[in-house]
Amino acid sequence: METLNSIVGEISSWVWGLPTIILLLGTHIFLTIRLRFPQRHILKAIKLSFSKDKDAEGEVSQFGALATALAATIGTGNIVGVGTAIALGGPGAVFWCWLTGVLGMSTKYAEGLLAVKYRVNSEGRMLGGPMYAIENGLANTHRGIARWFWKLMAVAFAFFTAIATFGIGSTVQANAISTMSQQTMGVSPVVIGGIVTILAAAVIMGGVKSIARCCQTLVPLMAGIYILGCITILIMNSHYLWPAVKLIVHSAFNPAAAGAGFLGTTIMMTARYGIARGLFSNESGMGSAPIIAASAQTKNPVRQALVSSSGTFWDTVVICAITGITIVSSILAYPDINVSDGGELTKMAFSKIPYVGTPLLVFGSLTFAFSTILGWCIYGERGMEYIASKLIRRFKRARGQEPTAAYMEHRLRAVNNTYRVLFLITVYLGAVISLDLVWNMADIFNALMAIPNLLCLLFLSGVIVKETRKYLWKDNQDD
Length: 479
Fold this sequence. Notes:
Blueprint: H1 2-15, H2 18-34, H3 42-49, H4 62-73, H5 76-89, H6 92-117, E1 120-122, E2 125-127, H7 130-137, H8 145-185, H9 189-204, H10 207-236, H11 238-253, H12 267-282, H13 289-293, H14 301-333, H15 342-351, H16 357-398, H17 405-432, H18 438-459, H19 461-473
Antiparallel strand pairs: 1-2
Helix pairs in contact: 1-18, 2-6, 2-18, 3-14, 4-10, 4-14, 4-16, 5-6, 5-12, 5-14, 5-15, 6-11, 6-12, 6-14, 7-8, 8-9, 8-16, 8-17, 8-18, 9-16, 9-17, 10-14, 10-16, 11-14, 14-15, 15-16, 16-17
């Protein structure tokens, strides 16, 4: 097993090497500049998040789509992930994680825009995401080798999404819930696994509308309570607040001099862990959030694009940054703690709040992980549905038959129900088995999803600019 862990770790390091980091950050920077810094519209984006386009096409409200996307992104990456990044890459990893979020707002904007522009209406259900943007925006506009390349990229994204769901979306989160429950409340993983699976099934089997309704209630509650706990710790560590910020910025470019018990590392390692955890947390550039953004009731693509960009703001620019500063200030305040165990760093910080610290963290960890399970089920289901629809049509046409809409609806409903059952099985398994490989495996599949999505964004950047000019730069968002 140690050999396998080592191999997977090497693969993860290779996948998250310099080319991927350049592609990710390069796309963030390129879109930020070409779209004239859409981050400056964050207040407008937040306002739109709470508005309703009742007469527009879509399955869920704009806030419902945002809440579901946030449910998927606000998870263990915000708690354990940030601590792991600090342990492996030093305090400077917080800076790179935060910077990935700030710049990633433009990429999330672009993803949301393409998701709505290229979505399709399938029997009243709005289907979209990178696979549809790649197919309808690139594959269908090219001929020859280029056409087949983009078709392959669309299928590859859908496939990696469906597979990644069983890691980042189910087993990782369920394992985090069972581990936390066993350590703090002494509940057996077998019991907690059953409870989580039953609760998830009650929501998931109702489809996207059921998940969105649940997330609209759960996300504001869990995020608010967690942020309140972090602010309490920062007030307690007020003397170390500014030194923590300076250490984070300084060690981002000079990690070997971090001090405070941190192991010496390199700028590349610091950036790699910070960027990887930033992407794991906010998913900007990964292409997952646009899948639910495509279901939003919105008048035009830019309105939902702005709403989508606010998700990265809340997840990384706010929550991950607060978590990082909370952990680093606590390390400075209590220099005798072990900084090599990323999973324990956040627990240590919250344990310093008398009486309610640990319960607050337990509540945050459990709800963050559970909400991620709900959100990611949609992503995996839509990815599998995309692949299944291609296979079903190819099979029928090979037999000289053209599948009817009713036939496709019946078959795809069966595919979705089967996928949900398999997903729930992995939720239970994740709660009861050891998952030593999960973090590296999650990083690998995150990158494999991101690459075709980022290529799509770059090649369709002209379309993104055109839509932005029409609706945002000319202030026509209400059209």
